[in-house]
Specification:
Helix content: 40-55%
Structural class: alpha+beta
Number of strands: 12
Strand content: 15-25%
Order of helices and strands: HEEHHHEEEEEEEEHHEEHHHHH
Shape: globular
Largest sheet: 6 strands, mixed
Distance between the termini: 39 Å
Strand order of the largest sheet: 5-6-2-1-8-9
Radius of gyration: 23 Å
């Protein structure tokens, strides 16, 4: 029976690996900035990833794997029409007409983007703004539109997805509670989509329900000791990434994106291999702290892409960090009741800890090569 379950478990792990390849680095997002401060009418800046536009519209005309600015310009009218069919703004019940003003290329932490500026005919001093967003949802249900609204009263953000196709805003000063709540959602969403962060944490947690005795893993006898080990690992990771997230968000310490993302991938490799060939035992919390510092810079890059409002800095930073911790806590709370009953079985020790860790190490190793060399090995890896 154990052999049958082991085969099923390995099959499930392979399916999980295949389904999460596209999440290896960063999920698909576009960035919208609606500005009610730059003039009498609303203005819009919209950053859309070129890889997403290519997937939807086949911009790469010569199929050489590279999208040139000439290829983008040749399809600019098509791109504008495609995008504007999937976005609508209205102020006080009146639909806004959007007119393209200029286009340019820019880079985010995950690659090249087309930046489009639009002018609207809606007044910037209206009372209620409604944004409806449907870009790419028919192609990628995990895609999200990350909206930032600037008004004379403050800056607000929102996540637009298949479950929230439309958002309404009053053009007034948001409360501190509202700012924290908005960025809390961002934080939860990011940790749940950040498969590299999740795999790093899980790689450190998997041995928590086991003990190393005479070169072999054996079931831990007491839940209390396991919970203490989990608490040390999670606390160390939380403290570390909170420190660097805050430093980076405040602009005090900055590291190159490629270095950060490559080191995050390396941390997953090392944490997973340590489960197969243990070097660090009870001191895994030290590993969690050291590499957690780097993961914090990764979280900060996401926060920067969201457009951290300087006039709402405290609320945004606190809310995002709390969201990350809440998402992380949910993963830990799901792990404990699943791992504890199976800790003494061959399925857990050989399949989950052994084969599962090797699979994670292989995937993370590919991510490391891709990120360090700016390469694409897996066809759908971001």
């Amino acid at each position: 029976m154990d052999a049958v379950w082991l085969r099923r478990l390995l099959g499930a792990l392979l399916m999980l690996a295949a389904s999460t390849v596209a999440w290896a680095h960063k999920p698909s997002d576009s960035y919208l900035v609606v500005d009610a401060t730059a003039g009498p009418t609303l203005q819009l800046r919209w950053d859309i990833a070129l890889r997403d536009l290519d997937y939807a519209l086949e911009l790469d005309a010569n199929h050489d794997g590279r999208i040139t600015w000439a290829e983008v310009r040749a399809r600019q009218d098509v791109i504008d029409a495609y995008a504007l069919q999937r976005l609508s703004l209205s102020v006080d019940g009146k639909a806004c007409r959007l007119h393209p003003v200029q286009h340019r290329a820019d880079s985010h932490s995950d690659g090249a983007y087309l930046v489009s500026d639009f002018q609207s005919d809606c007044p910037s001093d209206g009372r209620t703004l409604v944004v409806a967003y449907r870009l790419f949802f028919d192609l990628d249900p995990l895609h999200r539109g990350l909206l930032r609204l600037r008004s004379p009263q403050g800056t607000r953000t929102a996540v637009l997805g298949p479950e929230t196709l439309q958002r309404s805003f009053t053009l007034a000063q948001p409360s501190m509670r509202a700012q924290v709540a908005e960025y809390f959602v961002h934080g939860v969403w990011h940790i749940w989509q950040g498969i590299d962060h999740i795999l790093f944490l899980l790689s450190l947690l998997l041995p928590s329900v086991l003990l190393r005795r005479e070169g072999a893993w054996v079931a831990a006898p007491r839940l209390r000791g396991c919970l203490a080990d989990i608490l040390r690992v999670v606390t160390a990771f939380t403290v570390a990434h909170s420190i660097t997230l805050s430093l980076a968000a405040l602009g005090l310490v900055m590291l190159p994106s490629r270095l950060v993302e490559s080191t995050i991938a390396a941390s997953v490799v090392l944490a997973a291999l340590n489960n197969v060939w243990p070097v660090v035992g009870e001191g895994r919390w030290v590993v969690a702290f050291v590499f957690g510092l780097i993961h914090g810079f990764g979280f900060a890059s996401v926060l920067a892409d969201l457009g951290l409002p300087r006039d709402a800095l405290v609320g945004a930073l606190v809310g995002f960090n709390l969201g990350v911790e809440a998402g992380q806590l949910a993963i830990v709370l799901a792990f404990i009741p699943l791992a504890w009953p199976w800790r003494g079985s061959r399925i857990y020790r050989t399949g989950v800890l052994g084969a599962g860790s090797l699979l994670v190490a292989v995937l993370a190793g590919i991510w490391l090569v891709e990120r360090a060399g700016n390469l694409r090995i897996l066809p759908f890896t971001v």
